[in-house]
Automatic annotation (TrEMBL):
GO terms for molecular function: iron ion binding; L-ascorbic acid binding; procollagen-proline 3-dioxygenase activity. It holds the Pfam family TPR_leprecan. One of its GO terms (biological process) is collagen metabolic process. It comes from Geodia barretti (Barrett's horny sponge). This is procollagen-proline 3-dioxygenase. Signal peptide: none annotated. Residues 311-428 form the Fe2OG dioxygenase domain. PANTHER family: LEPRECAN 1, PROCOLLAGEN-PROLINE 3-DIOXYGENASE.
Length: 451
């Protein structure tokens, strides 16, 4: 309805509809969040505290997606849902010559979308208007409680993820107990007396023969590697079958996080396991996703001769599909570093939030598919972002590198077809290891046990 009013130039009606929708939004969000509650699943091989933390992570992950689920009704699918309210409001109020509400709507949009070019342009426009001062350009107070609650939700998720990593590490250190202590003594000390047993090895539920990876050194850089033959064609085909369950924009606030000229779809490893639990996905496909990720991790740790454990930080099955665009001048994924934020003006790359500063290594395991373009490339440096070395995707090819500014990288435009790969990020810090990876393994182990 709001979109129709916008295209009809019915500005007063547009403003009224959006303001009414804003009043209803907190109630709609709460209804969505309430639907996320479910029964507590007690993992057989997890301690009580770990089970509770994992349950909380599942709950909060579901609740944090509510704003995006409601976004299915957004005015324009290229806009971030919550921010789009204020994009349309500022324009509606501007057309009604209501300057102050328009300015405050623009300031709120910029607060929600600080990296949006549209939000920045709107802000510049209003700041340049005669008589507008810094005191005028402030976000709306009435939506601050909702914004603060969403920020707290994301902060709480981060704390839970860190706590889960602490518990898993502590459980591993305490496994079997200290010499001379029996179970009763351990119970007196803490309720991690029965820590989780080690997860089964990947080979425990194998259903295919694995190839022997072939390390290909196309560069002398010690922080980069390339390996072929990590997956067989059959394994690539099966993982491509799993991509049918990818969802648009998975894991990102925007459905098109990198370019609007491609359809971005993803499936994280926990969602794959849950779909197997619910009968939507054959369990062997989700297990192959897990095993291929572990196989990649082990190859990287061996090739880089790491002396400390390498932990998963985030695992994501992603596909990029070209749209019908006559001429492409953009990249599929702009040049970036995986653990710092590039300042293009100075060439510095700062390891500060919101960058994932704990990431130490990154990798892409290609599944191929029918597509054109989409080559991965390393840039020359932080000051010269042009391609230095390119890598063409093919089934079973693994590209890995250290995640810092020494390996600025990007992806050329996918000009035709669909390009799929498993994207992997790793950390040497156990406090930041991917709790959802262990949760996925637990779910798949339970499915196997029951079957």
């Amino acid at each position: 309805m709001g979109s129709e009013l916008y295209h009809r130039n019915q500005w007063q009606e547009l403003v009224d509809v959006i303001e009414t929708s804003l009043q209803e939004l907190p109630r709609a969000l709460q209804r969505c969040r309430d639907e996320c509650y479910g029964p507590l699943r007690l993992g057989r091989r997890m301690g009580f505290a770990q089970t509770v933390i994992h349950q909380m992570i599942t709950l909060k992950e579901c609740q944090s997606q509510c704003i995006h689920k409601l976004g299915e009704l957004r005015f324009d699918k290229t806009e971030e849902f919550f921010g789009s309210y204020f994009h349309y409001l500022q324009y509606g109020y501007h057309m009604l010559n209501a300057s102050l509400p328009a300015i405050q709507a623009s300031a709120t949009q910029l607060q929600l979308e600080p990296h949006s070019d549209v939000a920045k342009k709107n802000a510049v426009f209003y700041r340049q208007q005669h008589g507008v001062t810094r005191k005028d350009f402030i976000p709306r107070e009435d939506v601050q409680p909702l914004i603060e609650s969403m920020d707290l939700e994301h902060s709480f998720m981060h704390v839970l993820d860190e706590l889960s990593g602490h518990l898993e590490q502590f459980g591993e250190e305490r496994q079997g107990g200290e010499e001379g202590q029996d179970d009763a003594e351990l119970l007196d000390n803490d309720f991690f007396a029965y820590p989780p047993a080690n997860m089964p090895q990947a080979e425990e539920w194998e259903w295919q023969e694995w190839n022997k990876p072939e390390i290909v050194r196309f560069t002398t850089d010690p922080d980069r590697m390339l390996a072929d033959n990590v997956l067989s064609q059959d394994q690539c085909d099966k993982l491509l079958e799993l991509t049918k369950h990818c969802k648009e924009g998975d894991g990102y606030q925007r459905k098109a996080p990198h370019t609007y000229n491609e359809l971005f779809e993803g499936l994280n490893i926990l969602d794959a396991a849950k779909k197997s639990q619910e009968g939507e996905v054959v369990p062997e496909l989700s297990q192959l996703y897990v095993n291929a990720s572990r196989r990649s991790r082990d190859a990287i740790a061996k090739e880089f001769n790491l002396q400390t454990p390498l932990y998963f930080s985030y695992t994501h099955l992603v596909c990029r599909t070209a749209k019908d665009v006559v001429e492409r001048r953009d990249l599929s994924h702009p040049v970036h570093s995986d653990n710092c934020i590039l300042n293009e003006a100075t060439g510095e790359c700062d390891k500060v939030p919101p960058a994932y500063t704990w990431r130490d290594y990154s990798a892409i395991l290609y599944l191929s598919g029918e597509f054109e373009g989409g080559d991965f490339f390393y840039a020359h440096s932080t000051k010269d972002l042009s391609p230095e070395e390119t890598v063409s995707p093919k089934c079973g090819r693994l590209v890995a590198f250290s995640a810092g500014k020494e390996n600025m990288h990007g992806v050329l435009a996918v000009t035709k077809g669909r390009r799929c790969a498993v994207a992997l990020w790793f950390t040497l810090d156990p406090n930041h290891k991917e709790a959802t990876f262990s949760m996925a393994e637990e779910i798949l182990h339970e499915i196997k046990t029951v079957s």
